[in-house]
Amino acid sequence: MSSLSKLPPPKAILFDIGGVCVISPFQAILDYERAHNIPTGYINHAIQLGPHDTGAWQLIERGDVVLNDAWFASFKAQLSNPDHWSRYYLRSSSSSSSTGGGSVPPVPDIDAKKLFWNMMRTSRAPDPFMYPALKKLGASGRFALGALSNTVAYPDGIVDEEGNLFEKGLVHDQDEGNPHRGDSRDIKDCFDVFVSSAHVGVRKPDPKAYELAVRELDRVARGKGLGGVTAEEVLFLDDIGINLKWAKKSGLRTIKVNLGETKDAVRQLEEQTGLQLLPDNGRAKL
Asked: Out of the domains of life, which is the source (predicted)?
């Protein structure tokens, strides 16, 4: 039993989207690295290093720039920083079974546009464990539900790397046995509160993002007759460690959702909420 399970149930539950409620865009990154023989984790490393104020990924998630060809060029430059590449390559090679310490190969030639759209397409699929759990939590009426997501704002008529109009809605399995096939394609409809970084101008792990989310959850909870909500009464799920670190610093409870392990995270949600969120056989219902 986790230490969190000893606490009273949360009044509000706050979800990241990518890698929690929908299939992780990190899976698309991993697939790209494997296909192009890039050391696993390098792309995420380059994205996280930013820098915070001027990194292409950081700027697009704050809504400070427009998603266009100029941004894709900037994103490619972020992924091609020779210092970041050199340090990561030497570190990864020295920690592997190889002897390491040799010369550093050229920075990988990453197709930033293809990578980005692969990430966006991957994250249109609902997670087979977390999405049904989210629907059950909403149906229970016992919690204020919110999303706090680092997002990208899509210009009208945006096309992908192949020139096809990009549609950002969820893609539900249309099999007759899928109870969610008729659900809304807009993930926002699952929540009482949806805080999108690109639309509010602040992204995780900035403490202001958590403050805003808690404030909105408090407002909604009062309107639903659940009483006020403090940070300590909010349970936050995310797949990125630094986001969880600063959520904890802001007073929130947290659950780490590891890549490919959403089922385990749902089990932790069951402990916290007292609700059965997985089917009896533990299999996904999508």
From this structure: Eukaryota
What six digits make up the tokens of 29?
A: 């990154």
pLDDT tens, residue by residue, 110-139: 999 999 999 999 999 999 999 999 999 999
Task: Give the residue among 264, 137, 257, 231 at the shortest CA–CA distance from 192.
Answer: 137
Nearest to 49 by CA among 90, 86, 24: 86
Q: Copy the structure tokens of residue 70.
A: 């100029």
Tens of pLDDT, residue by residue over 196-255, are 999 999 999 999 999 999 999 999 999 999 999 999 999 999 999 999 999 999 999 999
| DSSP assignment string, 4-64 | GGGSPPPSEEEE-SBTTTB--HHHHHHHHHHHTTPPTTHHHHHHHHS-TTT-HHHHHHTT-
pTM given for the model: 0.91
Domain ranges of the chain: 3-24+126-273, 26-119
* CATH fold of 3-24+126-273: Rossmann fold (3.40.50)
Nearest partner of 252 among 6, 29, 10, judged by Cα: 10
Q: Residue 199 CA to chain centroid, in angstroms?
A: 16
